[in-house]
Amino acid sequence: MARFLATPIAVLLSLASQAYGDDMAPIIEKVRAHEAAYDDFRIKFTRRYSLKAPTVRLETMIRDREHVVDYVIKGAKYRYRLEGFEDPVKGDRLRLDITRISDGKDTRYLDGRAIANILHNTTAIDYEIYTPHLLLLPNFGVDGPLSRILGGRSASEKRRITVEPAGEEEVRGWPCQVVKIAHHRIEDDPDVVKLWLSVKQNHLPIKTEGFNPEVSRTSPVETGEVEALREVEPGLWFPTASSVVVYDPFELAKGRRTALGIHQFKAEAITLRPQVDDSLFTELTIPDGVPVIEADGDRILRRYVQGE
Hints:
mainly beta, outer membrane lipoprotein receptor (LolB), chain A, 15-stranded mixed sheet, 4 helices
């Protein structure tokens, strides 16, 4: 999948940490308990990105992006279908047609007519597709559930990360527990991401702010907010609309808050416990002429062209 622009949140959340106090333990347990409820559903949604007015317009930047997604998950099984486009600042529109399936044992991937992968003994859920607790952080290198991010192990022992509660606040009338994750690259000047967890809506993050002290100590380089929540069944909430704004760092350094780009999410349909045939997770038709790589873990078993 194409990834969105890198931000300090990418650094913070791709590095889980053990550095949390006893007062974080109840929050982590509540998040973990709620995460377990989101393991059998189907969702159809659209993600859009639009580049606004950056100070530096790089040719490799994406100007506009639209992804239309149909995603089904049943425990360790899932099917993900993406259609859409990406318009670079310079160059032609890129059409996207991607399918990824997993039967709980093997994973298969098809990128249009460009390439296919068959990955044996590779079943991990891709948390960037759609995870309610990570909706505001979908394309930042997140490699695990939020509960693990809040209480896991650092990817590098040389990087000190701390996680702590930061009080209680209301967002749009919803009571929230605020959590702060700090990445201490510089001892007294860490990068920080703040999450507002809605206590009445399954501890879903409904607001985020990311700070980079090298850009600004007072203004976030990125803000995210859930704009709509739907109670699909009593006690089970799904975020159905959100936006994430990334700010131009050059403008922020001058004290001006100018949007660099905006990511938007909108769910069209959500179905709990969908009735689908198991072949949805096992059968992927690869067109003739498509290059295929078949692997088991890190070991490539063979390369071939389908139909030859």
